[in-house]
Amino acid sequence: MGWVFILCLEGEADIRFGEDHVHLRPGTGTLVTNHRLGGFFSTTKATTCSLRIDRDVARSFAPALDDAVLRQARPNDPSILILQSYLAHLLNNADGLSPQMTELADRQIRELLANIINPASELASSAGYGGIKAARLSAVQAEVRRRIADPTLNLAAIGSRLGISERYVQQLLEGAGLSFSAYVRELRLERALQMLRDPRFAGKRISDICELSGFGDLSYFNRAFRARFGETPKDARRGLGL
User: Fold this and answer.
1) Which residues have CB under 8 Å from 198's CB, separation 6+?
2) 28, 56, 64, 89: which could form a disulfide with 142 (CB 3.0–4.6 Å)?
3) How would DSSP label each residue in 80-98?
4) Which spans in 147-217 are helix H?
5) What 3-state DSSP class applies to 8?
């Protein structure tokens, strides 16, 4: 016997096992078991993500698993928002994961699931298990990258998206030796450099590259670019004959 946690990403879906039923909306999830006859139904082209859970791992979440099956997770649970962002980050990693990183990701996902399925479980409350802070940091970094072109991006927006406080976002980054402003500036400059070197953007003006990179001020962009790369954006483009 095994268990599966189903996370709804888009649309809406109904899951039925006999008389038991749960309705999922984006940002919600539920635990199901594969030893009961049932089905998954959707009329809105729902997109879901399914995580298969080993029996012993599931038991570490909630000894009385029957009580957790087909119980909808709390809507907008911060752990679900972080899990969703974290999974997207892992799936978009084209280079795959090393064995060490795979093991780390496994621990982090287990702890996030424990917090979703049974926040009172030993796994969820064990500080020594590690992982959830790293998963949250990864989710924060992924969300920053996803929204890097937004010139209004700030700590509050990231925290709101992931269901955590602005201060906690700052603490996570500081714990990794990063300041939010410096981290965002570095990602934007790297994005600008990539576009300047990409023939597909050869028709774009420097001011367009500035805007597409998330910078709101062209003069500041030019100064920051030169300080970071030792040349102006025009020089970077000219050096490639674009």
Assistant:
1) none
2) 89
3) HHHHHHHHHHHHT-TT---
4) 155-162, 166-175, 180-196, 206-212
5) strand
Q: Is the pTM of this model over 0.70?
A: no
In three-state secondary structure terms, 14 is strand
- For tokens 């064990």, what's the residue? 126
DSSP string, 20-54: EEEEE-TT-EEEEETTS--EEE-SS--EEEEEEE-
Which helix (DSSP H) or strand (DSSP E) does residue 10 occupy? strand 3-10
Contact (CB, 8 A) for 3 and 19: no
User: What is the SS3 assignment for 13?
Assistant: strand
Q: What is the 3-state secondary structure (H, E, C) of 51-75?
A: EEECHHHHHHHCCCHHHCECCCCCC
Phi-psi region of 26 (alpha: psi -120 to 50; beta: other; left: phi over 0): beta
Per residue in 123-170, pLDDT (tens digit) is: 555 544 445 677 788 888 888 988 999 999 999 999 988 888 899 899
Distances (CA, A) of 219 to 152, 182, 237: 18, 18, 17
First to last CA, the chain: 60
pLDDT tens digits, one per residue of 90-112: 877 767 777 877 877 887 788 78
Q: What amino acid occupies position 111?
A: E
Inter-residue contact 13 to 43 (CB < 8 Å): no
Handedness of CA 68, 73, 77, 83 (dihedral sign): positive
Residues 6+ apart with CB under 8 A from 116: 5, 29, 73, 74, 77, 79, 80, 83
